[in-house]
Specification:
The chain is α/β, with parallel strands linked by helices and 323 residues long. It has three domains: 72 residues; 200 residues, Vaccinia Virus protein VP39 (Rossmann fold), CATH 3.40.50; 40 residues, no CATH class. It has twelve helices and ten strands. Strands 3-2-1-7-8-10-9 form a seven-stranded mixed beta sheet, sandwiched between helices. It has a three-stranded mixed beta sheet with strand order 4-6-5, covered by helices on one side. α2 packs across α4 and α9 runs antiparallel to α11. Keywords: Methyltransferase, S-adenosyl-L-methionine, Transferase.
């Protein structure tokens, strides 16, 4: 697929229009096409399976996203990648957010006050508190970049051990994977050691639950045509994150600060319903940036009931136009 991406390079802005306009149209057209197919009554699983087989479209989309990310978007600061990097530092560093929230959790347990963490998962002592913190120290953070395209986090190797995945990788270091359907293996299912990432060649076959410290969805959720798929992605991120790990979500929105405040409140309610707690939110000029901390293990009711109950909260403005 990498070779095909190179061939596409000479075609993508050959019609005389400004390159950024052509690239942006390519991306938007794919999003629109997927939503239109869904709204026309085609079952979601069929819309997605046909999309996965449409290699020409996947290649064009991947090439357009890569060119935008390292071109026009970089000229405007490349803020989404930097925001994710700084969020990781802010949360995990000495004296950072994780240390502070664990200290608060410990105090709340001592005084019998309610907390977002399940009681059995609270630090029970100063020693327990230190053990949790030390489990994230002295090593690189395991980061899963979903919809990575070109593996932008790879240059931060001193901090991150990156697993970059995409439907149509734009560079060799990104592994091919359909995150919505890849197998997630249980740690308790087999006594033998299961690899965190199992792959055949450049294609991921399975991922191991509770293996990652950070999961990143950068411009991922708006790509997906349905609320069910967006919620499923968040549920899968929860399953793959270690307790106290973080989910970082970046989604595009060039509207003013308060235009879609109700939409962001709905996202928060749904994602926290899985077993997360939002600890960071920024509205940039063109982006919403959200950080969630995993505060619970698999819910007793199971993920399927949460998906059914909460998925309608994960809407985007384009959904509303058609509904």
């Amino acid at each position: 697929m990498a070779e095909a991406l190179e061939e596409e390079n000479s075609k993508i802005a050959s019609n005389g229009k400004p390159e950024q306009e052509v690239l942006s149209s390519t991306v938007k057209d794919v999003h629109t096409q997927l939503r239109e197919q869904l709204y026309s009554g085609i079952p979601l699983d069929k819309v997605w399976s046909v999309h996965l087989k449409d290699e020409d479209t996947l290649i064009k989309y991947s090439k357009a996203m890569h060119s935008l990310a390292v071109g026009p978007w970089m000229k405007h600061g490349g803020g989404r990648i930097q925001w994710c990097l700084e969020a990781c530092k802010e949360y995990f560093q000495d004296g950072g957010v994780l240390e502070k929230v664990l200290r608060k959790d410990l105090r709340r347990k001592e005084f019998g006050n309610p907390t977002q963490l399940e009681d059995s998962l609270l630090p029970k002592s100063e020693e327990d508190y230190r053990t949790i913190l030390e489990s994230f120290r002295g090593r690189r953070l395991e980061l899963l970049d979903v919809g990575s395209c070109y593996n932008p986090f790879s240059e931060y190797r001193e901090l991150l051990d990156v697993t970059a995945i995409d439907l149509a990788p734009a560079v060799e270091s990104v592994l091919q994977c359909d995150f919505l359907n890849v197998k997630i293996l249980s740690r308790s299912r087999d006594k033998e050691k299961v690899p965190m990432v199992h792959k055949e060649g450049k294609i991921i076959q399975s991922l191991l639950e509770e293996s990652f410290d950070v999961v990143v969805f950068s411009l991922l959720l708006s790509y997906l045509p349905s609320t069910e798929q967006r919620m499923e992605c968040c549920i899968r991120a929860h399953s793959l994150l270690a307790l106290h790990g973080i989910l970082l979500i970046v989604t595009a929105d060039s509207s003013h600060q308060n235009r879609h405040v109700d939409m962001m409140k709905s996202w928060r309610s749904a994602i926290e319903g899985i077993g997360f707690q939002r600890w960071k939110y920024v509205k940039d000029v063109h982006l919403h940036c959200l950080g969630f901390r995993k505060t619970a293990l698999t819910p007793a009711s199971g993920y399927s009931s949460i998906l059914k109950e909460w998925h309608r909260n994960i809407t985007i403005p384009q959904d509303r136009i058609k509904e």
